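pasting input
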Amino acid sequence: MKKRPFQLYLPRTAAALTFCLAWLVTPAIHGGAPNTPSPPAAVLDKHYLYEIVRHLYRWHLDERDLETVPESSRFLFQIRRLMPTLDPGDASEFAEISMPLLRMKVVVKRSDYIIEETGDQVRSEGYRIIRVEKTEPSVTAVPDAVQVVTDVADLREYLFRTRAQVEFPDERLSERLRLAVRRELGVAPDAPLKKHHTAYLAPFSPVANEWWVFWETGKRLIQFSSDTDLTNPEVWDHEQLQVRVYDVYNQVVVTMDEIPGSNEFRTRDQIGRALYNCIVLGKRLDTPPASQ
Amino acid sequence: MCRRSGLLSGVRWFCGLLTATVLLAKSSDGAEFVRLEPLSTPEGYLARLLINENSFPGERRFVSLEDTKRGMLSVLWVLEARRRHVPPPYTQRSVAGVRSEDIIALITAPNQCEGFHRDVSGRPAYVPRVERRVVNLCRIANSGEKPGRFAALLAYAQGLAQAQIRGGIEEADRFAGLKVVNGMPVTGRAYSWMTDMDVYHPGGSFVSIPDPDGGTLSGNRFFTLKVKSR
């Protein structure tokens, strides 16, 4: 992917000199308290941060979230390392990325530990989104955060240009996915089907270990997720795979105010975004009945 | 939080420890490190809810053994809060979707706990994928040379369920003393939970418990209630 220039947030008196130096050395990152562990370098990378926003653009943001972002503003990322207490031997790393203009923040994780019972290694090659949430409009400064700044216009152009860019698993992985879908639907791997089935497979995200499938025949949205990269075929053996299934007819409301406190429903916005990714951006998979 | 005499607390604590020890000990034929109570029992059903709602190693939102344990305990406290600590002027039905002292009824109340319901005969039940995951987790827990995190978590969930069904929760509700969230008066205690993804808002008078107050555990976000005038 093409790298983009970005603006540094620095005092004016040093701006010119520092700007020159910035292009000669590794770009300086502003902020962070002296004794606070710095965020992982990979999370400060502009390419990576653009992918984070692209993921939000595709899976979480709606028109009303973006129309309030002024054209001339600089887009600020506030990044800090999180230090939860982990189990012995767990070398996973966490970070939080706040985006005040979007009023959103994500928590990312690079997993690195072993499941002692089976000897399986749980590892992601990069930092993957594990949590997305909206923040209060009044929250603009994150303590101990490092700041990375880019142009809103530049970011918007990137999002627009890549809005239909998709990645799909290779054939080897596709077979594992097919079996995983069958397993969740309660169908034996090679059992003949009695009727035609259609499913839509969403593209993979480079920054999230989740994958969505819309099983149109049964009107179900299926979400697969894992702490291991989904591009690792071994994860599809089920041991490290978590599955959630949503009935798009019966588990959808316009607003959670219709059924406060329930964790059984999803909003139409959430389901709509998932369906868009599956049906419009995704791949259609038709499976004819055995008779054909 | 449930209050009881010191002696009774001690007896219950010992019983809980003994039960957990039994669940963790390898059986005489060396077959298992942990076994859950049958689904048909309240203890077994409740344990499966706690297991279903929280992350295990290898799953996307897993952080640590203690984080998952805290998540299980907090889910249990949500049920208990809905059962016995509904703050006026809220009604139990408005918070929990049902009016009942039975914790199983709270779990199986329509449109409340995803995947958990009553079958056509009225028995507590859940969707097949819940059981598949539980079976898989038990299989992993009973693998290897010695009990590990999976066994510890399954045993913990079972221990919590047994404690609740047989008399009460020993550990404190971490959200009981919460009074203010972002300047808004709240009732304290959590009355709902949701997975942390997708910027969920539970609707109504529920208020998200923020990170500084420990509001996210085991991949779940917990919610308290706005204070309402009577």
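fyi Residues 117 and 288 of chain A are 40 Å apart (CA to CA).
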